[in-house]
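Hi W.,

Here's what went into the run:
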Amino acid sequence: MSLLLKNGFVYDPLNGVEGEVMDIAVDHGKIVETPLSQVQKILDVTGMLVMPGGVDIHAHIAGSEVNAGRLLRPEDHFKDVEVRGKRTRSGVGYSVPSTFTTGYRYSKMGYTTVMVPSMPPLEARHTHEEMDDTPMIDKAAYPLLGDWWFALEYLQDGLLDECAAHIAWMMRATKGYAIKIVNPGGLESWGFGKNVHSIDDPVPNFDITPRQILRGLCQVNTILNLPHTIHVHTNNLGRPGNYYTALKTMDCVQDLAKGKQPIIHVTHCQFSAFKGSDWSNMHSGAEGIARYLNRHTHVTIDVGQVCFTNTTTMTADGPFQYGLYQLSGNKWVNHDVETETSSGIVPFRYKRKSYVHATQWTIGLELALLINSPWKVFLTTDHPNAAPFITYPQIISWLMSRRARAKLLNKINRKARKRSALASLDREYDFHEVAIMTRAGTARALGLTEKGHLGEGADADIAVYNVNPETINPSTEYATIQRAFERTAYTLKAGEIVSRNGEIVKPVQGSTYWADVQTREPQEAAADLKQRFGKYWTIQYANYSIPERYLHHSKPIAIKAEV
Amino acid sequence: MSVVTDVVCPVCGSLCDDLEVFVKNNHVLIVKNACAMGEAKFLGYAEHRVKTPLIRRSNQLVAASLDEAIDRSAAILASAHYPLLYGWSNTSCEAIKKGIELAEEVGGVIDNTTTICHGPSILSIQDVGIASCTLGQLRHRADLVIYWGSNPWSAHPRHIERYTAFSEGRYQDSEWHGYVLKSRATQSQKRLQRAADLVSKTEASEERESAGLPLTQPKKGRKLIVVDVRRTRSAEIADYFLQVEPGKDYELLQALRLLVRYEELEVEAVAGIPVEVLEDLADVLIGCDFGILFFGVGLTMSQGKHRNIDAAISLTRDLNQRTKFLIMPMRGHFNVTGANTVSTWQTGYPYAVDFSQGFPYYNPGETSAIDILNRGEADASLIIASDPVAHFPKQTVQHILKNPLIVIDPLETPTSLMADVVIPSALVGVEVEGTAYRMDHVPLPLKKVVEPPRGLLADEEILEKILQRVRVLKEREA
Amino acid sequence: MREKAALSGARFVLLTGRTIYQGVEKEKGKLSQDYLHSVAICEMDPEDMTVMKIKENSNLRVVTESGSVVVKAVKSMRQPHPGTIFMPYGPWASLVMTSDTDGTGMPSLKGVPATVEAALGEQILDVRALLREYYGRE
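Here's what came out:
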């Protein structure tokens, strides 16, 4: 169907459009040049804000650890239910919503693509089943590879090409999109209940350090020409003083960068930005990290912004999650995955009056405000670790309004408020910057060339927000900003209106993207794996890979590797 | 004759996926690598089948067409106020998804066999969490394996050889060799003793078989401990067996929790076991490199129920302060884990999900199948891939039979004999593909090795037909 | 175990569970004689059998507060377990299990107070007869 969005204020940073009034033409699910020869439908969006659909670079919405979180928290579901609609399935929500509810809620906020950041390769089938049951949005998943025995073995012997060939096999077998690294070396250590504490700590039973894993996989990423960089959850997450680890992690791959392109993405950076030596003197390391980001071009981060609410932490960082259980005394789920990775889940409540939680809240905002370029810092809450994704509109209002920040700042723990630089930060994001950190920048960092922009050939995934950038003053009208971003006037997916004023009008399934990495001799890695498979895993080689037909809507991205 | 390799066995929660099935003329002739149950399934699946759809007329089940059976089923469900859709553990995830959609459409309750099996385990996990892993972690790392209230020899026959004491791992070797040697030694000893008894013409001495290695005797390699109320076959191959008094597991687990925290017990014995033995056991628990506690329905079904599991999970969790220790429920049916998993991601809850208010509501004890039936609240039932007439307590079965009963099953069972509508289906994992989840949540692809009998559809397809018909009926009503 | 409904003279604790024979036969089909032989049984400690005057492989009646059923007495190979009797899962065991779940959703399928008595003249019902007798249908 051909459709014309008329007269909106368009924000399309990837194509240099900053609030111009212009028409956007859609045909056969894609953005096309205006004028259209024939238009079947006209959508008058005068006085409204038009952006590409949101692209979330990191949200735990599907897979075994997410589902373990759902199972763990019936009390989280009781308070937030979704009644069955004429066109929509019922479900439950809050911090670990059921899959249908997840898709509907993202769509109502104008998001159209969400990345699943933690896929244990052995259980990839589960992640794909859940992604297929998450409607309204396109998805992709990152297989966890930083502690995979094959990766460790090849890297410790310096065999980069062999490692790359095996990672390529893994990417195709699991239908994954990017290399995810979590607490490198720490997860293998956790297999026997241990952890690593610096990037130069040796990994027990192997002859390798986290630094070598990071560098090795970074080089593998380049060899394979993967669309995204390595996506890294640093060692020492959540520990006072870990800001040094974060800086060392970013620095240890700097020489591998090519030109001004990013070569590493450090995710939910707030959790890795703690200065100090223990919980009583822990304070913000955001300034140092921002300074590093401002001076370098090889790193991107996403924030991992905390909100004060009762949420659920879930990561592949088994030892960190155990530590969180010890700190909080809350119920704890652990799930170690043979040969590959681990995970842990602990419910967690962030309190305004807690010095540490309040400091965490300020750290996230400081990172966003001190890093000059929104192309380097993206909006996430590491859903649901720092907060559920439904808090994004509120966070946007904080970024756009100093007053909104100040209002909450006055209610947090006094010591945290005094210690934080936040009160002195005047900067207020504008719509252009918001568009970058929630869609244009993330799409670019992910290498998703048809997302995050409204140029010709882009997927017609569009969000129309009912707010007039010419008449609104976000600085004072932050409540209006929050409401506007909570529900779009229209969300379009592949050129069709799927959500209108907070109501799903057309359920769609969405597609799953994956990196179809073509190497020159794929049969070699396959043969090697097949021969050794039984010594590593408890399932058969033939039952490991996920056939493409298993995905309801498969969108492979053909990539040619340099190996 | 052709061979299908890497076949996933659709019987128990071990979900062994290395079966080889030899097929000729659409019949399975030989199956390799399966245990006795797996072999029984692959060689015996063609007998005892329901051959055509059946509808009860004048108190007799008579043959009917598929359309008639679908229509009757849809009419029953569409007009019921509070239908129960139960079973699910012996079918594929794809069918389970359809079942959830159907339950939501008719505003009924969807529950699976967890409710009479590991329901208490799930209640407990929701209270205290669970520290667990995939089975390969144990094969590679576990030097202490405990089966508590679980008898793998009978219920999960290949578990020990594939995943624990008799398996080969990166960091641990198989204990099979050691077991064989010890077994031979024990047999020789018995023969000598019997010969000696004959010669001296004395009564065969009361063969109180020793409880195994003294716990404190250092043993290289993996240790296998069994805790049970009877000396099961699994207990016989264990290095150490603890016989616990029935109904006293809770006390025993809590006592161990105290001991691993270096606290003193002021009694002589707990659950029939002397405290000195328990102190040794606590040392073994703390002193291992990597321990795993498997528990079965011995804990969930006896007095204390989920509190027994609380204690077991808490013991495991406490042990993580000293060493690496994990715990795992021994799930019985091959896809009960899949039923929980699919139900959780689609509705937020793993079993006993009530859709009567238009959204998922969960309260085991209220919305669980046994309780709903005991209270006489369900006014129709759809039973699929399960046999509650054979396995539910009598009083509960009587309630099922007071109302219309629809059964979808490949085999003739006590439940299908009592039904008002029977729809035969193709066997998942033999005649139909699908996804299933192993007891440790690893998903596996079930294979199709033979064609189903003519006219038989997969569970998923049958449910889809019923769903479509229900929608038509409801639209007409509206 | 509910004191107020205590079975008078209950000397045994009834456990139900899986056996390999029950597991094999259920896969083949539950309406067969083989299945009946594998599950319509009650395993007892040999000393208990002597005291209760029940002969091996004779019929006995298991009685609980929920009802009673006639099955074959089998000498347990898993002794000693005085005071405990064991029946494999199946329609016969289900006739004597407690349906109350104590609000947990889970009925007590293990640890039910029971008595046993010799039932020499009585028959073990096959599945169809059992269903007719106890559930009024076939």
